[in-house]
Amino acid sequence: MDEKNKQLKEQQRRMQAGRRRGGGPAGALARPAEKVKDFKGTVKRLVRYLAPQRAKFVTVAGLAVASTTFSIIGPKVMGFATTKIGDGLLAKVSWYLAIQQAASHNYPASYIAKLQNQPIPSFDFGYIGRILILLAVLYALSALFSYLMAYLMATVSQTTVYTMRNDVKEKLNHLPLKFYDTHMYGDILSRVTNDMDTIAHTLQQSLTQLITSAVTLLGIFIMMMSISPLMTLIALVALPLSGLITMLIAKQSQKFFAGQQKYIGLVSGHVEEMYTGHKIVKLFGKEKDSIEEFNMINDKLYEAGWKAQFMSGLIMPALNFVNNMGYVAVCVFGGFMVAKRLISIGDIQAFIQYMRTFTQPIVQTANIVNIIQSTVAAAERVFEILDEAEEAPDSENAVLLEKTDGEVGFEHVHFGYSDDKILMEDINIDVKPGQTIAVVGPTGAGKTTLVNLLMRFYELQGGRITIDGVKTTDMKRENVRGMFGMVLQDAWLFKGSIRDNIAYSRLDATDEEIYSAAKAAKADRFIRTLPAGYGTVLNEEASNISQGQKQLLTIARAILADPAVLILDEATSNVDTRTEQLIQKAMSNMMKGRTSFVIAHRLSTIKNADMILVMNHGTIIEKGTHEELLAQGGFYSDLYNSQFSARQ
Question: What gap in Å lies between CA 30 and CA 36, rounded to an integer?
Fold first, then answer.
């Protein structure tokens, strides 16, 4: 069993599965809130986003106060009706008892007849009816104000989040590639979607609940004091005890909820891992081990989940017990006061209603405080994106190259992903228009970095890169990147028709231009064999066509853009030999008359390049044609011969 526990700890450490929040009767009270680095600063920034909606927000607060006030007055007004009914009932009982007493004590018949001839006491239905109408009006106004409050708050929250979402989208458009290289896409997506939804939900519901809870708490306290300060004191004795019980149980349940969340993550991770690799599990006959491991985690989850739900479930029964004891004390003391005619029966009825309602806003406020804590944490995550350093702005006097020959130069280029770790030092390259430049080297040598610098995805620490003699830093990034066409190792296509995917590089392209680009890319034939041809809609992952077909479409897209410089980054590494030959022909057509940078691991594909750059550790260690580099007998020669001998 110790070995199994070690395995469980190891699995917990290596799995990064998503966790869900546990639930229970105690709600947010039973779960720890997310921690915030700068609560005050984040709240101030969130308030600044709400500032343009301040008039509506103030109106919402006023409506919340009005709605709650009318609702609070209701029990007091209903108490008047109860008192009037009680008075009528008491008068009727007194009249009946007086007749019975006179008859039992042999009072004179004339006296008894006089009592019997008196008008029978009745209920004042007119007064009671007016009270009921007033109650209906009060509750109708409360409902109306509540509706208007929800409507306005929905506008406030959605407008605020709409503005924040636009700011984040605008920010993401101006962030450098370095940001995306150092942040997981899932994390960015979570901030833009889940965190935004959390903020919207809190603004729309929790803030109004916080206002109404505070007003309700204050209003009920005032109404209880107006009825009887002494009974209010008795009722409030239960309040500290309720808070203490809630705090103690919540503190214990939080530990179990944390364990529940941990084991939910482990179960999710284990199931995902086993079913993703189910073929490997079956191949090595590990089904039994997989089931045993699942059962072990599931048992832990059951134990933690049972304890979490049980502990959180104790809160409401414990609170009800304390509150019921308070009701008993109030009823006994109130009954004594009614008997002494120190208070009316209607006030007792109203007081008990207030007392039953008094604890609800306290619990709501405690829950909302936890929710707000999580919301501020979500807002802080969003603001972290907004605080990221943007790309350096383009030069005010930026040069615009409408047409370029494709001459590229690297002059004494220095670059590092951080200032203290320089990757490239004194890189010099001179590329003539129409030349094909191959870039080779082991993984991590800096090949892709070289291309990223060329398109200004990163800024240099020193030196300069020129296109047709003009520094790229003197041009707008949009102008620089518009000169390039790229075909990457991972073919990126979006959900939509094949026609739209090809035309992505030139949205104003005609159908004839799209067909011509597809033919040049050797893609026209397979496209026309599809049921809808160019109108065939690709799914989200474009899995309804093959990997090679995807690559041909990206080549067609690059051809349609008609760029001055081509970048081909391992464009044939994920396809079979026959498809590779087809793609090579398509790329050869595309490269004619254009400056091309080809990143390749298969050295046989770049033997005809005009110049081969051999990179290692961010430095160009060799430079020349295929024959020249083989003759040198250096790094390239060893690399090429090792690939050739491997094929033999």
Answer: 19
